[in-house]
Specification:
mainly alpha, elongated
């Protein structure tokens, strides 16, 4: 033993002896071991331990520091507790040989909490309850697991991170000062990461500038729930933690596909640290930053192999509120809001008035118009309205749309519980994306086949086809007249208009598909092949396409499952639903004359009605069509509820 160690040991022994004499000789001998702990006030302990440089030799000959700063300890959360409440093995002064000096933070806090519960004083010890919860989290963390190097020890205990004698309450100046030391404490085990952190914008603010508001290790990695950064849950948690300081940036990130997948609980898309870096993060304008304009393409290529220069102008934090910085997004958003408002304001009003008019007529017992059948074959009493190919195309189109709504809106409203359940059932966002694209391909294929059919039809009938005739789907002035007449009928100011082959709302449905295929299909295709899109168009197109694709999909889904369903299935005149004409292809003469009186009169006058008449669908066909109709109606209305839950949730959260 060196002279210095011998002197330190001698000093410690003398201090212990002095304390022994001051505290009264024979205490340990006069009182049982179980009771003596209560007789040692903190002043007795601090009589030795508050001496500057106080230490004692340990088995390997080194000196163990045992100094406790009295003032600092008094300000800590433990300052009002007795030392021997934690140091349970201290029963004598001087301490008996073999004292281990081990303290179990876990057992201590848990026993205190149990005592509080037994005495009914949990409300007064609320903070203690929080600590116990933190302990439960810690016990599941990577720090509580055995160290690889020494299986008998954990990776990190409470006092490796906290200074047991100097744990300060939140909001206190001492706590703020202690916070700045966290990187150094973490650096005792994670030296490399601490060195990298010191070069980052966060590290410079804390370690060099002394700013306690900048991020330290525990702000990103959490405190008691620390897990491996490679784990999906950790990646998602760290991304969420970035939002504690960068709330607006997190919100805009969550609006991108990267963020939507993150919201669903999957970690394979880019997170904040994938683009900005983690321990070496720098400001955007710093040439060494991963998102500096000169480095951005290389950063994108980490995930998007083959990415082109167009990627660099994509705005991962773009928003629709800042016209100066993001004019294209602002304009697109305002256009889509106007479109949604205009469409729903007109058609929901139209549906509400229609429901009221038909409900009143039904209450008054107005019957369907009589159909003249003289001279007709009564066995053939149904009108053939749609052929087999039309019906098959409609069915595939309807199923495709519903799959698209399910898989797309589950991503669009990823924060909802139903979206998490749907995504889990589908096998995750990757599987949902494949299903989404399969449905989109089916829908686009049906649309393409229809275009081919129309092209050949017009080629064959170019000279004789009446572009604005009664059988054409091209809008004409009569449609405006019919719409005005319909509103007059709504208010009892005139009779119900007599419609021809196509009503004005059916024409709207038809041409809306063309709009939807161009807008939803076009934007979806651009997002599905980003490398090609980025090689041709600037990156801000991705921002615009994302807005258009989502908002137009919302418009289509809500319109189909409210207005389209009402017009064709849910009106009082259609009771009981559903209308099965798109499954059987034929409609009764009574319904045909009521719905398309002008066409009926035209065909009768021309003597052409009979050639369009067919036998009534078989009972089996009718039953199967009704079942199919009910199933599709049920699915559509369920999807409508899910979409509206997501929409309302996003409004209230935003």
């Amino acid at each position: 033993m060196t002279v210095k160690k011998f002197a330190s040991g001698l000093t410690a022994a003398l201090v212990l002896a002095a304390t022994f004499l001051l505290s009264g000789a024979g205490i340990a001998a006069e009182t049982p071991a179980e009771a003596t702990a209560e007789k040692f006030p903190n002043s007795t302990c601090l009589g030795c331990h508050a001496q500057a440089g106080f230490a004692a030799p340990v088995a390997d000959g080194h000196m163990r520091k045992l100094f406790v700063a009295k003032d600092k300890f008094g300000k800590s959360v433990h300052g009002k507790r007795q030392c021997v409440e934690c140091h349970l093995d201290i029963t004598e002064i001087p301490h008996k040989p073999g004292v281990t000096h081990k303290v179990s933070c876990v057992k201590c806090h848990e026993s205190l909490w149990e005592a509080a519960k037994e005495s009914g004083k949990t409300a007064e010890n609320e903070r203690l309850g929080v600590v116990v919860q933190q302990i439960e989290h810690y016990m599941k963390s990577i720090h509580a697991r055995p160290s690889r190097e020494d299986q008998s020890h954990t990776n990190a205990t409470c006092y490796d991170c906290h200074e047991a004698h100097y744990v300060y309450p939140k909001g206190s100046p001492e706590r703020t000062e202690w916070r700045k030391s966290i990187p150094d404490r973490c650096g005792q085990c994670h030296a490399k990461q601490r060195a990298e952190y010191a070069t980052s914008v966060h590290g410079k603010e804390v370690l060099q500038e002394g700013h306690s508001w900048a991020a330290v290790c525990s702000d990103c990695h959490t405190t008691h729930d620390v897990e491996s950064p490679a784990a999906d849950a950790t990646r998602i948690a760290i991304t969420k933690n970035c939002g504690n300081c960068h709330a607006e940036n997190l919100q805009t990130y969550l609006g991108t596909y990267h963020g939507q997948v993150n919201t669903l609980g999957y970690a394979y898309t880019a997170k904040c640290f994938d683009c900005h870096g983690s321990h070496t993060i720098q400001r955007v304008e710093d040439p060494s930053s991963m998102v500096h304009p000169d480095n951005r393409l290389d950063t994108c290529k980490q995930c998007h192999i083959g990415a082109s220069k167009g990627f660099t102008s994509f705005s991962p934090h773009g928003n629709t509120h800042d016209f100066k910085r993001y004019p294209y997004m602002w304009l697109t958003s305002k256009f889509m809001i106007g479109l949604l408002f205009g469409v729903f304001a007109f058609f929901w009003t139209h549906s509400a008035l229609w429901f009221y008019r038909e409900y009143q007529d039904r209450k008054q017992g107005k019957s369907a118009p009589h159909v003249r059948t003289a001279g007709l074959d009564l066995k053939a009493k149904y009108y053939q309205r749609f052929g087999g190919w039309w019906r098959l195309g409609h069915l595939i189109f309807a199923i495709s749309v519903m799959v698209l709504v399910l898989t797309g809106m589950a991503v669009f409203y990823g924060e909802t519980n139903w979206a998490h359940s749907i995504m889990s059932a589908l096998g995750g966002p990757r599987a949902a994306a494949y299903l989404h694209r399969l449905a989109a391909t089916s829908m686009l294929s049906i649309f393409f086949v229809h275009l081919v059919y129309v092209t050949f039809f017009l080629k064959r009938n170019w000279k004789t086809w009446q572009w604005f005739g009664p059988r054409s789907l091209v809008p004409r002035w009569q449609d405006l007249t019919d719409a005005i007449g319909m509103f007059k009928w709504f208010f009892g100011l005139g009779p119900r208009p007599a419609f021809d082959r196509w009503t004005y709302w059916e024409k709207f449905d038809y041409w809306a598909v063309f709009w939807g295929m161009g807008i939803i299909g076009g934007s979806g295709l651009m997002l599905a092949v980003p490398n090609i899109t980025g090689s041709i168009l600037p990156g801000w197109v991705f921002n615009v396409a994302t807005i258009i694709h989502g908002e137009e999909a919302f418009l289509a889904a809500v319109f189909l499952f409210t207005v389209h369903f009402f017009n064709n299935h849910l009106r009082p005149d259609k009771y009981p639903p559903p209308d099965i004409v798109m499954f059987t292809g034929a409609v009764s003469l009574e319904e045909f004359k009521h719905e398309h009186a002008a066409e009926y009169q035209r065909l009768v006058a021309a003597g052409e009605l009979e050639k369009h008449l067919v036998d009534a669908p078989s009972p089996q066909m009718t039953k199967a069509s009704r079942i199919l109709g009910f199933v599709l109606l049920g699915i559509g209305l369920t999807l409508l509820v899910l979409v509206m839950v997501g929409f309302i949730g996003s409004i209230t959260a935003g």
